[in-house]
Write a structure and sequence with these properties.
Elements (H helix, E strand, L loop, with lengths): L5 E10 L4 E11 L2 E12 L1 H15 L6 E6 L2 H8 L2 H7 L8 H10 L5 E5 L7 H14 L8 H9 L2
């Protein structure tokens, strides 16, 4: 396997008001291939959008043979994975933890052997992270966005 035999996944999330209208953006890169994906919701949080960007990116990878290097400016996401907090949360059924629906969805696509997470400074010199921010902000301003059902369900339950 050569040094370029991995996929790069850059991600970002945004919410205006937190909670408020929100969006996520991601860039997938492999050799000379590039794919951008974004989406938004009427009312959500920044952390939900940061995590959803990672999930949608990993779900979009079609090759199981390649490693994925994930670059995020979210300490919430990167630390939860690299410091293994999410596995402790799973053991307690995500009791009193934010975004259990998304963390469970994440764990269905996460592969410790194939996915590496790196924190990057947001709004700095990382071209791809800045592009993800543009995609996320634009998605958060889209008319007629869907409802973030996971956020609304948790909000109604009082967590």
């Amino acid at each position: 396997m050569g040094s370029q035999d991995f996929i790069e996944l850059y991600t970002d999330g945004a919410a205006s008001g937190n909670p408020g209208p929100g969006g996520f953006g991601l860039v997938l890169k492999f050799k000379n291939h590039r794919k951008e994906i974004s989406g938004g919701f009427k009312r959500t949080t920044n952390n939900r959008m940061e995590l959803l960007a990672v999930i949608v990116g990993l779900e979009s990878v079609t090759s199981n043979d390649l490693k994925v290097r994930v670059y995020s400016d979210s300490k919430y996401v990167v630390d939860s994975i690299n410091l293994k907090w999410v596995f402790g949360w799973r053991k307690i059924g995500f009791k009193n933890k934010a975004n259990p629906d998304l963390w469970q969805r994440f764990l269905r696509v996460y592969d410790l052997q194939k996915h590496e997470f790196y924190w990057v400074k947001g709004h700095a010199s990382n071209v791809e992270n800045n592009r993800c921010d543009e995609l996320a902000v634009a998605a958060s301003k889209t008319p007629n966005m869907p409802v973030d059902e996971g956020y609304e369900a948790v909000k109604k339950s009082g967590l």
